[in-house]
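TICKET #2291
ISSUE: user wants both folds in one file
ATTACHMENT 1:
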Amino acid sequence: MIRAERFNSIISLSNEMDIVTLEALAKRLGVSVATVRRDVEELAAQGLVEKTRGGIIFCSKKQDSEPSLQLRSHINQEEKRRIAQAAFEYIRPDSFYMFDSGSTVGALIRLIPKNYPISIVTYDLSYINDLNNLECADVFILGGKLRTGQMACHGTFAENYLDQMNAHIAFIGADSVDLQKGIMGFNTNDVNLKQKMINNSDKTILLCDHSKFENRGFISIHGLEGIDLLITDSGTDPEVIERFREAGLNIQVV
């Protein structure tokens, strides 16, 4: 297979998946990993893919649609880890917390020690294994209608359950953050859940890596006036951070 054919084959995979490893690409194309790595370097230079640890992300999947669970769990892992560690400093024993759906929020849950006395409510089913390991936690799963492909629930049942709850802190993620529009997303199903978590908590902490400032979501979820603290990574443009701070938002950079 000549190089141009390999390029076409790699790009065509964007119809099947969001992210793929170099090893899987090499096996699929019948070439060495070294050859695939050189191809990826060229495609990345053209802006067609983005390199990640041991693989690539198809750039067409990063905008204008909700990222898949697979994509969200792989992109910007180191940045999300730092954000989660900073957020964990605000968690105290014997307190009640709300965790919405997202890979950075999931990274925060994985930092909770198994013997930590804490109360948790969430609608993200991808956290189940980690939550099940928390021996001293009271865990409330909102349930409702399953959002296919995202391992999360939504709907009237979940919203009514959440109406009965209050928390010390809500940890919220976002598909994007905009100075005028606030928290934005690509999916309409969990808008009410995010809004209720923000409104039913004493404090709201927004967890966003730098990529969330580089695009705009489909729907506005909540204004920035409902956010007490935004934690982001050092990859976020300093000018962007300064504009948000001038607007009155408290930001912690890690």
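ATTACHMENT 2:
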Amino acid sequence: MEFANKEYFLLLLLLIPYILWYFLYRKKSEPTMRMSDTNAYRFVAKSWRMRMMHLPMVLRSLAFVLLVCILARPQTHNSWGQKSVEGINIMLAIDVSTSMLAEDLKPNRIEAAKNVAAEFISGRPDDNIGLTIFAGEAFTQCPMTTDHATLLNMLQTVRTDIAASGTIADGTAIGMGLANAVSRLKDIKAKSKVIILLTDGSNNMGDISPMTAAQIAKSFGIRVYTIAVGTNKTAPYPVPVAGGVQYVNMPVEIDFETLREIAATTDGNAYRATNNRELAQIYKDIDKLEKTKMNVKKFSKRYEAFQPFAIALILVLLLEILLRTTVLRRIP
């Protein structure tokens, strides 16, 4: 924790004259009673009230200290740092069309893809990674970042129901997904820029063809690794029916030839995954990508943290007032 206005701590020096006044001069202004002899009271034990006589003064002093802490603006630590790390710039482009619900991979294609992608991200802490999702349309789910905790949280929110609900058009716009990922990488000044594109279909939507997007990626020095997920013939697909789910065999239609051409055009590689083990192995192969040095600036958000001090101040003042007006009340 830091204090933004540390100069306010100089106000604590005011406690010194207050304490001196309390113990040296305040007694002179208090009422007294003359007695001929006090010898009879020499051995009388002090009551608990006498022992707590100075407690209100201690509480007032503590309240003043808390007030000064609030004025000094306590804040969480805010650090900026720039360091050189070994990493690459990667955009993940993941198909979220409704066909990704097929269960030839377990528990289904989309969840298998997310699980392996999450493991891949966790294994590359120094990489600058972003996430694009696409169905009949494409958009950026998470821009390029080294904050992988945030990226993983956004990856877990990826669902195929955005296409099923009509939020975006259903279908497979491979060219749009690839072009969206390229737009996030094109202006980055680095040697290694990579897109990992995962899909289970063939391009049937979008205004940009896959090969046009591949040529654009090549012009910006971006390598594309394509992954086709799905079995070779048919895949079980869940269809909601009254009272449950019925499975139908959905034909697998993957345009692997186009995916191979995209990878070849950009000096990448094309892969085919028919089960979870193969998909995991593909990401392990891609994990061996070359690395390059890049400067990364990290920061933590600053926020005001005066609330605990304010709560403690109110409680201390209430306790001081309560004691001074009840059990420790002095007459006159």
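RESOLUTION: both attachments delivered.
EXTRA DETAIL ON ATTACHMENT 2: The two ends are 45 Å apart (CA to CA).
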